[in-house]
Amino acid sequence: MLPPKLAIQVRAAACVNPKEAKTKNKAADMQKENQVKEMKELIKGLGSNKNEHSIETILKAYPVVNDIVSHIDLQISYKEVKSSHKSRSENEDLSCMLKHLRNLKPFCQVSGRTLDCYFSIKTSAFKELLPHKALLKEKVMHTINCLKRGIPMPADENEKNVEDIVDPQ
Asked: Are 58 and 43 in contact (CB under 8 A)?
């Protein structure tokens, strides 16, 4: 469509600041960078079907595609639902539940409030590890020191150490 010399100038103008000189209009440069980025995304969308003709066609359609994407909410009559109610955070809900559970003490036996199937549940899973706290701390510090020095830890030894701590014989 364009004469060869003008076509080269148009292609060069599509890139932001091709001469790498300091520019005065940063807003225009940023807008052009965003346009080039969006055009590249359209070209990537072609997948393996990229050829010169398909690239030219998709770049000609760029203004229409950009307009559709930027105004999609208006075109489909999407209305964002806004509410004056504030949603509570999950942390507040959890802290409220924990407060009530602490008062109820669900793991303490109270007559009339027991279920036989839950009798074997322990209050804390970590109580079993308390007698082995020193051994656990020693093994963790040994692992930390080895990792600091760059010494690789064998997988079998780690698994054996964990088994010794959890289920000593």
From this structure: yes
**CA dist., res. 153 & res. 92, Å (int):** 41
Tell me how far apart the alpha carbons of residues 70 and 41 are, in angstroms, rounded to a whole number: 15
Q: Look up the domain containing 152 and give its range.
A: 122-169
Residue 150 Ramachandran class (φ > 0 left, ψ -120 to 50 alpha, else beta): left
**Locus of tokens 């003709």:** 53
Count of structural domains within the chain: 2
Domain assignment of residue 86, yes or no: no
Q: Are residues 65 and 128 in the same domain?
A: no
What residue ranges of the chain have pLDDT lower than 50?
158
Which pLDDT score, from 0 to 100, does residue 77 have?
A: 82
Contact yes or no for 8/20 (Cβ under 8 A)? no
Q: Is residue 101 part of a domain?
A: no
Residue showing tokens 């595609």 = 65
Residues 6+ apart with CB under 8 A from 46: 54, 55, 58
Can you give the pTM of this predicted structure?
Answer: 0.34
Question: Rg of the chain over CA atoms, in angstroms?
Answer: 33
Annotate 104-118 with DSSP letters as a single string.
H-TTS--TT---GGG
Tokens matching residue 168: 């000593």
